[in-house]
Amino acid sequence: MSVLQEHEDFECLVVDNYQRIYGVIYRLVGDTHEAEDLTQDTFVNAYRARNGFRGDSQVYTWLYRIAVNLTKNRLEQLSRRPASLSGNLAEGDDEESTFPANPPEAPDRLAENSELGRMVAAAVLGLRPDFREVVILREYEQLSYEEIAGVLGCTVQTVKTRLFRARNLLRRKLSNYLGDLP
């Protein structure tokens, strides 16, 4: 019997992982409605495939893989359409989940950090999808290189290379705002 065969166990899995999966997808697509749809699709696909989950990886790694693959497919579909996503972070969508939970004390610092958060989120959304994935999984989700490699189905060295290149691109994109950083 699979680890996820019991209906009650699967309900707990959804409750325990919904926000994390939504957060990853949201950061990948930058649109709340798309993220909600893709999150729901992730759990529907996971439910359908639950009997095939062997427990070789952690459950959240398996869910991330489903979520990232669905998101890649959706982004490819959307890139073929002439219309772009509306309400993405690059256009100023101010989603609370994008920003740190601990606001600074002073209002001017709060405004500055909010602006920085939007700029970083927009810069991350502007990365190539393969770079965006590693940045989100490493920096936002705090996954290890090995876990990211498992989610993306690539080697640890590929993860490290993509992350290095993505960080350099982000540093260049944000250099005017951040000044000279080491």
What can you see in these coordinates?
- The chain has 182 residues and is an all-alpha fold.
- The protein has two domains: 1-87, RNA polymerase sigma factor, region 2, helix turn helix motif (Rna Polymerase Sigma Factor, Chain: A); 102-182, Winged helix-like DNA-binding domain superfamily/Winged helix DNA-binding domain (Arc Repressor Mutant, subunit A).
- The protein has helices at residues 7-29, 32-49, 59-80, 107-125, 129-140, 145-152, 156-178.
- Helix 1 (7-29) runs antiparallel to helix 2 (32-49) and helix 1 packs across helix 3 (59-80).
- The longest helix has 23 residues, at 7-29.
- The chain is globular.
- Residues 83-105 have low confidence and may be disordered.
Query: Number of domains in the coordinates?
Result: 2
Give start-end ranges of low-pLDDT stretches: 83-105
CATH topology of the largest domain: Rna Polymerase Sigma Factor, Chain: A
| CATH H level, superfamily name of the largest domain | RNA polymerase sigma factor, region 2, helix turn helix motif
Largest sheet: none
* Amount of helix: 55-70%
Distance between the termini: 52 Å
What is the 3D form? globular
Q: What structural class is derived from the secondary structure elements?
A: mainly alpha
Could you report the average pLDDT, rounded to the nearest whole number?
A: 80
State the name of the first-level CATH class of the largest domain. Answer: Mainly Alpha
Q: How many strand units?
A: 0
